[in-house]
């Protein structure tokens, strides 16, 4: 079908009172960014809906991109024709000829914002219903949950016909809720945590700790590839690689094994917090899930979290691993995450990490480290790069929202 427009319905942002304009403007600019390869598309963001005038661009290519934009509840590709009864009837018939297979029930729903139009909504419903019956006399008309809902909208500028409603990504437009630092390992959980955070309108930057030569180039590449999987939702994500070798070597040398993990995690959090300040972020996001491993018992979380007052969002904290995997599959990060490249935490994983670390011990062992210098060195070696690779997203994506 050759569509000329896409009508976009906003999600939750309709309830945001006076912030509404901020949300709509942000959504409009995110849509433009998502459709950067389609320069002819014109975005008209109104209070209640957004209209994308396609100006000849291909709707089949545009629809998959739109599905990834948070803040869109659903959208309908539509065809614009002259406000002339005969033209509208012909267009309705053409649509039905293309989609009717002989079994579906149908109805017509008309909306009219141009009240001067010659027919009112119920007359138009009948006119179009008759036009369809003229070509398919046996078609079943059904008011409640018809298979095909042929919609007509009469506006000032023209008449719009559509029949399809495509689910959007839901959530809030990214960028309307400030910026977070996502602690991104190469695992399954943190990319999912990043996805869920962006869904609520939060912009993210990915912070990844690497310990070469103990961790390989491929481990960093994997984290970057995961970032690339998250970037289509926003157009691009800053990837921040933190050199962590010196910190880990010092910890291994000076701290008893049972506390390696706790103190390593505290250092990661301190560094992420410092990077957050540098990058003007507001909060930290990680992929911790309650009880999953020794670092994620409540006791461990308390001991690790103690280094900062910065709010830490843990979107997957209460999910079961299988639930997280299901999401990872839907956002197409799972296959990448299970690639077997050693992460910095795996390499230095002590055989028996404390599941109930004691803070007095933590303080005692941390006195043996020159934390300020270790941090300054790591921060001096940050590598920052924007990851924009647009990768295909799993078809199943829309089922999830
Ligand atoms: P994931 O939790 O993403 O599956 P994982 O299981 O390897 O990865 P955990 O040991 O569960 O990681 O670590 C918990 C969280 O700590 C991660 O979700 C991530 O937010 C953060 N984290 C761990 N390792 C790193 C790293 N190398 N760089 C950045 N963040 C990390
Ligand atoms: Mg994990």
Describe the secondary structure blueprint for this structure.
Blueprint: E1 5-10, H1 20-34, E2 42-45, E3 49-53, H2 59-66, E4 72-81, H3 85-99, E5 105-112, H4 121-135, E6 140-141, E7 148-154, E8 159-162, E9 166-170, E10 179-183, H5 189-199, E11 203-210, H6 217-230, E12 237-243, H7 245-254, H8 260-278, E13 283-285, H9 298-305, E14 312-313, H10 321-330, H11 334-337, H12 344-347, H13 359-366, H14 371-380, E15 383-387
Parallel strand pairs: 5-6, 5-7, 10-11, 10-13, 11-12, 13-14
Antiparallel strand pairs: 1-3, 1-4, 2-3, 4-8, 4-9, 7-8, 12-15
Helix pairs in contact: 3-4, 7-8, 8-9, 8-14
The structure holds adenosine-5'-triphosphate and magnesium ion.
Magnesium ion binds at residues 187, 189, 287, 289, 292.
Task: Give a written overview of the molecule.
- The chain has 401 residues and is an alpha/beta fold.
- The chain has 14 helices and 15 strands.
- It has helices spanning 20-34, 59-66, 85-99, 121-135, 189-199, 217-230, 245-254, 260-278, 298-305, 321-330, 334-337, 344-347, 359-366, 371-380, and strands at 5-10, 42-45, 49-53, 72-81, 105-112, 140-141, 148-154, 159-162, 166-170, 179-183, 203-210, 237-243, 283-285, 312-313, 383-387.
- The strands form 2 sheets. Strands 1, 2, 3, 4, 5, 6, 7, 8 and 9 form a 9-stranded mixed β-sheet that branches.
- Strand 5, helix 4 and strand 6 form a beta-alpha-beta unit.
- Helix 8 crosses helix 9.
- It starts with a strand and ends in a 14-residue tail after the last strand.
- The structure holds adenosine-5'-triphosphate (ATP) and magnesium ion.
């Amino acid at each position: 079908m050759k569509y000329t427009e896409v009508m976009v319905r906003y999600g939750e942002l309709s309830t945001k009172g006076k912030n509404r304009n901020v949300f709509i403007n942000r959504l409009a600019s995110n849509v433009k960014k998502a459709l950067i390869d389609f320069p002819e598309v014109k975005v008209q963001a109104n209070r209640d809906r957004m209209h994308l005038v396609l100006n000849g661009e291909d709707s089949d290519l545009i629809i998959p991109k739109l599905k990834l934009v948070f803040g869109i509840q659903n959208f309908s590709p539509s065809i614009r024709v002259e406000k002339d009864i005969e033209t509208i009837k012909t267009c309705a018939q053409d649509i039905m000829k293309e989609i009717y297979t002989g079994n579906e029930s149908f109805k017509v729903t008309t909306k009219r914002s141009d009240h001067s139009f010659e027919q009112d909504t119920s007359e138009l419903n009948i006119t179009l219903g008759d036009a369809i019956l003229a070509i398919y006399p046996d078609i079943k008309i059904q008011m409640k949950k018809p298979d095909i809902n042929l919609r007509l909208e009469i506006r000032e500028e023209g008449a719009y016909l559509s029949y399809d409603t495509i689910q959007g990504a839901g959530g809030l437009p990214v960028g309307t809720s400030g910026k977070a630092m996502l602690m991104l390992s190469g695992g399954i959980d943190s990319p999912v945590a990043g996805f869920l955070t962006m869904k609520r309108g939060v912009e993210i930057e990915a912070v990844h700790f690497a310990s070469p030569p103990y961790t390989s180039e491929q481990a960093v590449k994997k984290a970057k590839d995961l970032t690339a999987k998250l970037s289509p939702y926003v157009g691009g994500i800053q990837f921040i690689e933190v050199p962590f070798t010196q910190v880990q070597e010092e910890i291994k040398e000076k701290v008893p094994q049972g506390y390696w993990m706790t103190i390593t995690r505290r250092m990661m959090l301190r560094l992420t917090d410092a990077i957050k300040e540098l990058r003007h972020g507001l909060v930290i996001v990680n992929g911790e899930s309650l009880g999953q491993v020794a670092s994620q018992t409540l006791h461990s979380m308390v001991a690790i979290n103690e280094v900062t007052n910065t709010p830490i969002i843990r979107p997957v904290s209460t999910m079961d691993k299988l639930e997280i995997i299901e999401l990872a599959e839907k956002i197409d990060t799972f296959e990448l995450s299970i690639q077997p490249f050693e992460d910095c935490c795996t390499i230095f994983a002590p055989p028996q990490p404390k599941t109930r670390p004691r803070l007095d011990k933590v303080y005692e062992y941390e006195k043996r480290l020159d934390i300020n210098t270790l941090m300054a060195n790591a921060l001096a070696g940050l590598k920052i790069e924007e990851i924009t690779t647009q990768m295909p997203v799993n078809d199943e994506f829309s089922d999830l929202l």
